[in-house]
Design a protein that fits this description.
The structure is a homodimer of 287-residue chains.
Chain A (H helix, E strand, L loop, with lengths): L12 H4 L23 H27 L6 E8 L5 H7 L9 E5 L5 H4 L5 H4 L8 E5 L4 H8 L5 H20 L2 E9 L2 H13 L10 H6 L2 H15 L6 E5 L3 H19 L10 H9 L2
Parallel strand pairs in A: 1-3, 1-4, 2-3, 4-5
Helix pairs in contact in A: 2-11, 6-7, 6-10
Amino acid sequence: MTATSQQNWTGDPADLLRVSEGFRLSAVDPDSTPGYAGGKKAGQSDLEAGAVQLDELQERLFAQSRLQDDAPAVLLVLQAMDSAGKGGIVRHVVGSVDPQGVSLVAFKKPTPEELAHDFLWRIEKHVPVAGFIGVFDRSHYEDVVIGKVRALADEAEIERRYGAIVDFEKRLTDAGVRVVKVMLHISPDEQKDRLMERLDRPDKHWKYNPGDVDERQLWPAYMDAYQAVFDRTSTPNALWHVIPANAKWYARLAVQALLLDALEGIDPQWPVADFDVEAEKVRLAAT
Amino acid sequence: MTATSQQNWTGDPADLLRVSEGFRLSAVDPDSTPGYAGGKKAGQSDLEAGAVQLDELQERLFAQSRLQDDAPAVLLVLQAMDSAGKGGIVRHVVGSVDPQGVSLVAFKKPTPEELAHDFLWRIEKHVPVAGFIGVFDRSHYEDVVIGKVRALADEAEIERRYGAIVDFEKRLTDAGVRVVKVMLHISPDEQKDRLMERLDRPDKHWKYNPGDVDERQLWPAYMDAYQAVFDRTSTPNALWHVIPANAKWYARLAVQALLLDALEGIDPQWPVADFDVEAEKVRLAAT
């Protein structure tokens, strides 16, 4: 279902960007803007309109959970190569809704305590509670992406993790969490330009890490690891979406569309009062 | 120091709203707009200008912490009677900065596990880390406000807590956390109107709790408890500010001004690269 407030889609981004049977990452053009008829300007205008809609849907989702313990939640999982724009998604898409209904976690290199547990231990702690939109900036997928590329775990362990992830996400969705998984896909040339900009601007130096260049040289291995992730973990209840992200405006619009789609699927309703409204008006008036 | 982007202040809100020696809560008019020469329209325009400034200062604060473990943080403590507008502050003031640099906690009724610990145990866990703006929507002050009004603890225990709070906040400020404490001050009539609106609108019913009317009838006791809080815990390093909040636009502008003041006091700087910028450009160009 296409989000009604975003006018310029010619197809449904949830369908167009979905990873399904036979998907090949190498066939996705990072410069493309699938299903969108407008350019950057139309995209920005649609993003603003979508923000208004997202804001209302999020408030309903939150409200519903106040009177219903098992109310649904949404979990947005963001994965990408460095500089692909995860931060911009958080700021410009997630940042448009009330922060009181968002739980955001940026997963870093695991601590010794985290490494002493199964890889899902630290993830489980941050699953969004009912009524919230949770956002994972990196996630358990690092454990099968960098884990594989850098051989931080052996092959049998990586295999085990794919299965564990599928089971984990099935449990989440069974418990009412809509899982929206997004990989932002940029080209190596685009990354080079973005990293060079960070080096050119003193106010961006803090975002640059010399290790980024080392990782960059493993690009093909990373793409293979992502392909394996898509092959193994894009399940009907927790589908992957690959979003061409050389055009930042398109990536933001597409992620917003996926969130709108998830929320429209939940269709949250204002909860009915569990008290006598007229009686309360009388009580309040008397004070 | 008055925030430069907010044009219409005739005095410094940090000074004008401060709780100092001899402060009387009963002397504050909730309808007033101390130190501000404009009305609602000018206030909204100043709020937008201030948001741009807050956004840049927050990014610098965050950036600085990436290369400096003991970098400063900010903690905004929000206390108020029901419906005074804490939620609006979070949404419209805090919500204007990048969510990646904000940690927000809404403290609810303590759980049995929390009650089995000292009252500061659950608070300590949510102190913002370096580089973050932490926001407490309610806080450890509930334990000396509702704690006192509802006699949830005896007098000696309440006395102990004032001292414990002063010591705790001194430790935070010594460790580099700027503590900004705000009480939003509305009148009982304004609260009545706001609660009645929640009863009148089905999409607001979820925000209404019959217990609010019970608490409302204890208004004078709550004001006394707040006065005691100001007398005992407005220390030089962790001052209280009481903000007249019948005019929502004024309260938002004033809280933003206090945050700007705190950040300008920190004066965060873009960190200097800890790598050889020119050498990295060469390395990157070669990939």
